[in-house]
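Section 5.1 Outputs to date
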Amino acid sequence: MSQKEAFKLNYPIEVDSIETDTLHLRRITVTDLEAQQVEKTELGKSILLVSRISGVSPAAIRTMDAADFNKLADKVVGFLE
């Protein structure tokens, strides 16, 4: 499961004080799905899941442009098929 897939952002975000326009996503595990259950809202669950599979903090994910986040969420859903 070491293979990661790149996701290019149209609007860069700051990750660990470095501007980045690409997130590297790993496949989703059952543990990731289980972990997101602590969140009460669907948006919170999505933010946590993206954070876990990208290695980027939830705080940084929350600064993403909404259009980028929606495209990323669609890609993440594809990982479950």
